[in-house]
Amino acid sequence: MSPSLGAASMGALAGSVVGAIGGLFALGIAPAVIGRNPALLFQTPILGLISFFICGGLGWLIGGQLGPRASRQFNFSLAEILAGSAGGLIPVVAIAAWGWYMVTQH
Fold first, then answer.
1. CA Rg value for the chain
2. What is the residue extent of each domain of the chain?
3. Residue 105, class by beta-carbon neighbours within 10 Å (0-12 exposed, 13-18 middle, 19+ buried)?
4. Is the model's pLDDT at 106 over the cut of 80?
5. Angstrom distance (rounded) from CA 22 to CA 7
C-alpha cells in the first residue's frame, strides 16, 4: 500500500524542512561560488523566498512518498527520515542547477 499524496509523516516533515531551508539558498549558490563572495547568497531575497515555498512544498510531497516506502522496505524508522531528507534535496538541487545554468549562460 503506497502512502497517499500529501499525507503527514516524518519523511514529509524532513523533506519539507530540508527543501525549505535549502530553497532559501539554492539560487544564490552559483553566484556566491563563481564570485567567491558569500554575501551573494542573499543577493535575490524575493526569489529566495519564492524558492523557499516551492522547495518546501515539493519536499513535503516527495519526502512523504519516499520516506514511508523506505521505512517499510528497510524496517527501520530512521530510514523514513533519511529518505524524506533525500526527497527534500531533489527540488533544491534542481533549482540550484537552474540557477547555475542561468549564471553561466548569461
1. 15
2. 10-105
3. exposed
4. no
5. 22
pLDDT digits (tens, 9 = 90+) for 30-48: 999 999 999 999 999 999 9
Q: Are 11 and 78 within 8 A, CB to CB?
A: no
Classify each residue of 1-18 as buried b or exposed e, where b means 16 or more C-beta atoms within 10 Å of its C-beta.
eebeeeeebbbbbbbbbb
Cα-flanking dihedrals φ and ψ of residue 90, to 5°? -60, -55
How many H-runs (helices) and E-runs (strands) does the chain carry? Answer: 4, 0
Structure confidence by residue, pLDDT tens digits, 58-92: 999 999 999 999 999 999 989 999 999 999 999 99
Report the candidate in 10, 4, 25 with the shortest Cα–Cα distance to residue 91.
25
Please tell me the predicted confidence (pLDDT) of residue 25.
94
Contact 83, 67 (CB under 8 A): yes
